[in-house]
Design brief:
The complex is a heterodimer of chains A (194) and B (83). By secondary structure, chain A is mainly beta. Chain A is 0% helix and 42% strand. Chain A is built from no helices and 14 strands. The termini of chain B are far apart. Classes of the chains: A mainly beta (194), B alpha+beta (83). At the A-B interface, strand 5 of A face strand 2 and strand 3 of B.
Chain lengths: 194, 83
């Protein structure tokens, strides 16, 4: 069944099923209940760049590691939310340490809900950045803590300035954290095709 | 009225050159057998990850796709990281 609906949109009072064929609607469409789309939708054009094929929201569990390890760590909270729209993932996270443990080394944020795309060979830091808009229990950092997503990976490296007036690309290690460190952050990264 | 809660891994995806295994865990609440709530939790298993805490199904997928060649390539990728 296919068809074209012009200026008059019929009011469907029961389910309408099309076994095959397309409907073309030549006017505005209002759906007063849920719409379920098994495929995707084209917005503003019919090219692949206009195609939106995924939406999802859920939870993830952020974990901080020092030198890739987390020995003896415990949290009073480590919770996260994600929203994925197409190829863009936005995350929110709260990490509140109860004990930072005994591991040493540079700080990474792990547990991301999706693997980041390695979309350019120019750099390993692909541009997805999470900024700690509110933090506590950090020392000797001269700018807000940032997490930069590593392409082709599921971790983000921690950066800030470790000297007054220094650049923002200093690695941050475990010595800047305490047993009462608390982080709140958000940001986005790319998970689509190269 | 009976409320039930079910947790299941409803999507296991293999993505990228390094075969990251993306796992979505759904928590489904049903009232008298009818779903009234569904929430998701996600995590990703990298080729170098400890998989002992994963489900047997995820472990099987990881064992299949995280070959030594993939692990070696991933290790080289990590070693070659440049800012």
């Amino acid at each position: 069944m296919g068809g074209y609906l012009g200026s008059q949109i019929p009011s469907f009072v029961s389910d309408v099923t099309s076994a095959s064929g397309d409907f073309t609607i030549g006017s505005d469409l209002t759906v007063n209940s849920d719409a379920t789309v098994s495929g995707g939708i084209y917005l503003g054009g019919t090219g692949s760049a206009n195609y939106l094929d995924d939406y999802e929201e859920g939870n993830w569990t952020p974990v901080i590691k020092f030198g890739g390890n987390s020995a003896g760590q415990s949290y009073s909270a480590n919770v996260g939310k994600y929203i994925k729209v197409g190829d863009l993932v936005t995350v929110f996270g709260v990490v509140l340490f109860a004990n930072k443990g005994t591991s040493t080394g540079n700080v990474t944020l792990t547990g991301l809900p999706f693997s980041a795309t390695d979309w350019t060979n120019v750099t390993s830091i692909e541009g997805g950045t999470f900024v700690c808009s509110f933090s506590s229990g950090l020392s000797n950092l001269y700018n807000p803590l940032m997490f930069a997503v590593v392409g082709g990976n599921t971790v983000a490296n921690a950066y800030s300035s470790t000297s007054d007036g220094g650049s923002l690309d200093d690695n941050v290690d475990n010595t800047k954290f305490s047993n009462s460190t608390g982080l709140r952050f958000s940001g986005s990264y790319y998970v689509g095709p190269v | 009225m009976a409320l039930t809660e079910e947790t299941k891994e409803d999507k296991i995806e293999i993505v990228g050159d390094f075969k990251h295994v993306q796992v979505r865990t759904a928590t489904v609440i049903k009232r008298d057998g009818v779903e009234i709530s569904r929430t998701y939790h996600r995590h990703v298993v990298a080729p170098n990850a400890d998989i002992t805490g994963e489900s047997t199904e995820v472990q099987a997928v990881c064992a299949a796709v995280h070959t030594q060649a993939v692990k070696d390539a991933y290790a080289a990728h990590l070693a070659a990281q440049e800012v």
